[in-house]
Design brief:
186 residues; single chain; mainly alpha
């Protein structure tokens, strides 16, 4: 059971480490994406302001319009430019929020891996204790088998010795009975 639990815990730890690696990779990609978006926003803003204040240029453009159609067209162009700037800024904010989410995922994955590593270390200690207990039990069984074998050998030797003594005593008894019979007849 402990070995099965150990295998399960190792699989869970490997899975957690894989999730952590994936989260760290996603975080790294998120940082690259955010940096690229920042460059894009900075480039757009720099381009817009290199020609002057965009709002003043737009206002001047509206003032220079000679007809209401041209005024409407220039106002539409201004809205497109401002919309593009706002869209790129929104994309930057979205990539920063996504990056924060990925950072949270990495932190959660690290915490989960740390918990699984601690549990695996605790289980390893249990496994080592159980293996030591198992080895002690094996040693005890071996010791008992040796004692039993030695006891049997000792018992067999004592029995053989006792049997030899018994035969000797029986022979002596026969000799004594023989002597007594001879004396009784004499």
């Amino acid at each position: 059971v402990a070995r099965e639990r150990d295998a399960q815990m190792q699989a869970e730890l490997a899975s957690g480490e894989a999730e952590l690696a994936a989260a760290e990779a996603a975080l790294a990609q998120g940082q690259v994406d955010r940096d690229a978006q920042r460059e894009k926003v900075a480039s757009t803003v720099a381009d817009m302001y290199s020609e002057g204040d965009p709002e003043l240029i737009a206002f001047s453009s509206l003032m220079d319009a000679e007809s209401t159609e041209e005024l409407t067209r220039r106002d539409g162009v201004r809205d497109v430019v401002i919309g593009q700037e706002a869209r790129e800024y929104d994309e930057l904010k979205a990539s920063e929020v996504l990056l924060e989410v990925r950072q949270d995922q990495v932190a959660e994955a690290r915490d989960a891996v740390a918990v699984k590593r601690a549990a695996a270390a605790e289980h390893l200690e249990l496994m080592q204790a159980l293996e030591a207990e198992e080895q002690a039990a094996k040693d005890s069984v071996v010791s008992l088998v040796i004692e039993r074998r030695d006891a049997r050998a000792g018992a067999s030797a004592a029995r053989a010795k006792d049997l030899a003594k018994l035969r000797k005593l029986e022979r002596e008894q026969q000799q004594i009975e023989e002597m007594l019979r001879k004396r009784a007849l004499a």
